Amino acid sequence: MSGPDLQRLLRRQHGVLSRRQALGAGADQVHVARMVRRGEWVVVHPGVYVTHNGPLTRAQREWAALLRYPGSVLAGAAALAAHGVVAPSRGRQARQSGPLELALPHGRHPRRSSPGIATSQRRDFAEAALPAANPPRLRVEHAAVDVASRAPSEDAAVAVLADVVRDGHTTPARLSAVLERQRGPRRALLREVLADVGSGAQSPLERRYLRDVERAHGLPTGQRQVREQVASWSGVETSTLFRDVHYALFSSLVELDGGLGHSAAADRWADLDRDLAAAADGLATLREGWRQVLDPCRLALVVGRTLSLRGWHGRPTPCARPDCRVRTERAA
Question: I want to staple 300 with a disulfide (CB 3.0 to 4.6 A). Which of 78, 217, 220, 261 is the partner?
Answer without folding.
Answer: 217
